[in-house]
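tool_log.txt
---
The assistant was asked to compare two proteins side by side. It first ran the structure predictor on the initial sequence, then on the second. Raw inputs and outputs are pasted verbatim so the downstream comparison step can read them without reformatting.
(1)
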Amino acid sequence: MNEYGELLDNETVRFERLLPGPIERVWAYLTESDKRAQWLAAGETELKTDGKVEMHFHNMSLSGATDIPRPDKYKDMPERMSFGGKVLRCEPLRLLSYTWELEDERSEVTYELSEQCDKVLLVLTHRRLTTDDMVLSVATGWHTHLGLLEDILNGAGLRPFYKTQSELEAIYEQRLA
């Protein structure tokens, strides 16, 4: 299993992570606002086709004391950002797919879960990324956020968000070139 995201085509990035189970626990961290806020973004998700998805990002809240300040690249962006989407498919404990609708962009995120003994294989695919910059940003962002999810599920201290993201951005610039 590759720790880095894989570019499936010019607009699709895929990640695989083997996480500690049980599958119900991993599903809760993908779908429950209070748990998802610890590693990605808060917001309600209606677990049904055409259900509403809310994403309220506050990456500074994911940063620890050892983190670097928010990088210059993000200085002009709001510290908190929200957007929504719609559930495309929901098969509890197995699959959740929804749109991310941010300004003019509409991409699609799919989480697939499968049990692997006492572990859970998470396959995350983000599709319909329209520019190279978006592919780079999404790949780096997901890698960073999934690392936080791993830390939480393993009971480890959280890695510093912006420091990790900055380091990964340089790696992904080379990998995706």
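(2)
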Amino acid sequence: MVNVSRKLQKDVLLRISKQFNVAILNLKNTATGIQYLHELLSETEQLMLAKRLAVILMLEKNIPWSQIEKTLAISQTTIARIQRHRKAGGFSTITVMLQEKKNRDVFWLELEILLRAGMPPLGKNRWQSIRTDVQEYKKKH
């Protein structure tokens, strides 16, 4: 978890958040957006966000927690926290986006690329479960 050194007043926090969101929304192409986030976020923050997205997607696909834990090298406590937030209606924008077939396919493939870039290889079959899930998903849809 990322730590913030001091708490901000609510109005200041809202203004800063709005500025950040507007900056993200104004990015017109993927390459610029990637570069923007690469410059803005540390490697640890990028990996944290990639893993969070991966957990959301894997939970949406009903992938067993043990497989999520092993594939992403995260604790079941983290998975449980994300699942609780998801069940309470959190991540609704991401969930809606994943309901579109095109978005799901792109998301799965991009997710694999992100995870490969952010995590060191741990044997030749480390990504086999992700590849299998992607292939099974493509066959069904």
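---
observation on (2): The chain has a mean pLDDT of 78. Helices lie at 10-25, 30-40, 43-60, 65-72, 76-87, 92-98, 101-118, 128-140.
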